[in-house]
Amino acid sequence: VYIIKVTWSSGATEVIYRRYSKFFDLQMQMLDKFPMEGGQKDPKQRIIPFLPGKILFRRSHIRDVAVKRLIPIDEYCKALIQLPPYISQCEEVLQFFETRPDDLTPPKE
User: Fold this and answer.
1) Structure pTM?
2) Contact partners, residue 15, CB within 8 Å, separation at least 6
3) What is the DSSP letter of 35?
4) Which intervals hold domain PX (predicted)?
5) Residue-wise pLDDT tens for the chain (109 aa)?
6) How far lies 2's CA from each of 44, 71, 77, in Å?
7) What count of other Cβ atoms lies within 10 Å of the Cβ of residue 18?
């Protein structure tokens, strides 16, 4: 689980918690919704940032994999919100970064 500090344009800040699988789900939604910007027809046209795919690993490696993904996830979030508003402010992105009931009772570990 990743801890993300979200700062909205209003200046309000919130802390949310997201699993890597939720980032991956968002990525798939973005590529489906914006195929041109996702480079499906012409890879040179891609503006949606890349997110490393899912990795299969043993339970003992969870922390190592999570730590290795910190920088790519940070870069992905920053690149995503720098995209044109029709992408960066689309419903899927806004919903992803909104506070959810789970965020009010964060994971213990």
Assistant:
1) 0.82
2) 3, 4, 5, 6, 103, 106
3) T
4) 1-104
5) 888 999 999 999 999 999 888 999 999 999 999 999 999 989 999 999 998 766 555 555 666 666 777 888 999 999 999 999 999 999 999 999 999 988 887 666 6
6) 31, 11, 12
7) 20
